[in-house]
Protein: ABC transporter ATP-binding protein
Amino acid sequence: MSLRFHRVSKAFGRSRVLQGASHSFAPGLYALHGPNGIGKSTLLAILAGILDPDEGEVHIDGHSLQSDPVAAKARLSYVPDECPLYPFMTGRELLQFIAGAKCTVIGPEVETLVDRFRLRPYLDTRFGHMSLGTQKKTMLVAAWIGAPAVLLMDEPSNGLDQTTREVLAGCLQALRERCVVIMSTHDAEFARIVGAGVISFDELQAQG
Ligand SMILES: Nc1ncnc2c1ncn2[C@@H]1O[C@H](COP(=O)(O)OP(=O)(O)OP(=O)(O)O)[C@@H](O)[C@H]1O
Structure:
């Protein structure tokens, strides 16, 4: 279980967001910290294979996202801040769809999470008709499908009530030994209750 990226650069037009960022992560919980607009979401999107870097390479559990993307992406989960996709699918259909895409099934751990996040009453509701918080909880639970080696989350506590934040913190703590969990968050209190190590965005750039 590892995540490594080396000399990753990205610019949007003349705006350089990442300049040779490098880092290696062993299993554990990490909170990516930095001011608005510095590039945290851009970095997560590159690590998740949503965005191509201009230069550099990302390795997910030893597989290159650039030269072996299918193997690399099979080992990772990504939870965006918002998810406008699949409004027509029910919660259950969405979880099954993601399990199918990962060539696996919904196992007992995910079923337990459905109950811990109190999602079961909404499994037959279409995603587009769920509240934003329920959509978020569905995407969070989906991230556990396929036992990822790397879990990337953009602002995971956004829109969650206090009870759900605590449930999420407990679930993340249980991954500490077996997954690289990186979250971008401005919620310092959430990072603290999770027990995440704080990684400064500038620190990653300095290692390039
Ligand atoms: N697709 C894009 N096209 C052009 N510019 C972009 C694009 N995506 C991001 N940017 C720019 O890249 C910079 C970094 O944005 P990013 O969303 O990664 O920052 P962030 O650190 O996640 O910010 P926040 O804390 O506000 O979420 C910003 O200046 C943003 O405007």
User: Anything to note?
Assistant: Residues 12, 15, 17, 34, 36-42, 184 surround adenosine-5'-triphosphate (CB under 6 Å). DSSP finds eight helices and nine strands in the chain. The helical segments are 40-47, 69-74, 91-101, 108-116, 132-142, 162-173, 188-194, 201-206.
